[in-house]
Amino acid sequence: MAFGHCCRRAGASGEEPDSELCDRKLVLEEVNGNSNFFFFFFPALLLVRAADLSEAEPTLTHMSIACLHKHNLVCTSCTPNREYVRVFDVTERTALHRHHTGRMCHKCGAQLRDTIVHFGEKGTLRQPLNWEAATEAASKADVILCLGSSLKVLKKYPRLWCMSKPPTRRPKLYIVNLQWTPKDDLAALKLHGRCDDVMRLLMAELGLDIPRYDRYDMVHYGHSNQLRQARAMGDYLIVGVHTDEEIAKHKGPPVFTQEERYKMVQAIKWVDEIAPGAPYVTTLETLDKYSCDFCVHGDDITLTIDGKDTYEEVKTAGRYRECKRTQGVSTTDLVGRMLLMTKAHHSNIDEDLDYRKHTDNFGKGPKGHSPWTGVSQFLQTSQKIIQFASGKEPQPGDTIIYVAGAFDLFHVGHVDFLEKVHQLAEKPYIIAGLHFDQEVNRYKGKNYPIMNIHERTLSVLACRYVSEVVIGAPYAVTADLLDHFRVTLVCHGMTEVVPDKDGSDPYEEPKQRGIFQLVDSGSNLTTDLIVQRIIKNRLEFEARNQKKEAKELAVLEAMRRLEEEKH
Length: 567
Hints:
The protein is about 35% helix and about 10% strand. It is an alpha/beta fold.
């Protein structure tokens, strides 16, 4: 299949009734069942289904197509090709027959090109528009399906319509559109309907589930510290994890999906059980359902979309406890580091102007800062490390396993990997070696790591599968390191191993000893993919922080007035 973008058009006349659409989509379903190769045309527009851009999301048609196929737009000089997703207009320097954006690929240094078909251009361009591949795909097609496209631009590209073939050998053309198109007379079937309606019926007939558009939220070591404190207040800790829908409704776009959050929270060593799909507003009914004596939350306030305290009911009933919020870490700060590409958060690097601007402005509303949403500096202490560390020494019979890496933005991909490593032995003792920030930046580039060495240390120590952490481990796994920790097995994931500074293999020593093993986590989530999620949803995250801060400031003002009235 060959894909572009799809669009849901609204407000046009001539829409067919559902009964006729249902009959006609059966024709499409039959065509799908009898065809070996589909070729799709979509317009380059994306319908924004919201008054606020920060609340926009893909249409049902987008998600239906995503279920059928995944595709990338890339830097074509890299091997393999490298994808760039931008949150800004890339065409400020491009025009008719001129596609270079003026930016370079960070990996290979080649010039990046846009993927725009400017009006007046014919289908003779090669990469990045890939007309040759599109023409080849069209020539193999049995069916061409046009969803929502006016077809006023693509009519100029005869090769995409296989016009060189006799009419009887051309792929059949099916059009879904509320408007007239120049290709209507050539179509085997024209459906005057909305793309979403047609795709919903078609996907149901094919027995395919349309995936939800996932939103995200982050789990970081600040949450782990709160859970550590909460566990110390009782004997059994149950952690309620909200759904994507609840978070999006009350806070804004999450960073991790709910399934990812479930797995990550369960991997925190102080958690005994999770309660999936916990309501955003904690009620006495929820506490009684799980036989909980009380609930615990940080000393930062949590508000609903209406600005109400989510713990008001349990506070009134005296079944609420409070723990200290971890200063210097927040989703706001981590998101800002990804977007601004600064390195000021690295250890031993002075704060720069961009990062100062970030701490002053990221998520700042028009009326100033909230003490809960603002950005502050994280200060590592020996006491904090002791609180997170297991304090357990390896025992006789333990299999001592060493893993090393950045473990940046500690996520479910790391959890899956460590869980698989943990399953390799009956009594595993896993030591995680964390590289210094400057070393990680050498082999990962950009502004990695997003979390500095101190933050990454706490994130990894909080994982139930890890027994010990080597802070600032050497990049090469040396004989001294293996002998000192009495390591019996060294594991690495399926990600690329970058050579050491001198070009040598950092795992040469354990390979020579025959104790090196690759472990497939089964997860394709990486730190790069998380950063891409943030970049893709930048407007949503900025809007989220501003709305959240505005609600918090309103509560602070109300509390101040109440205090004044008392005096």
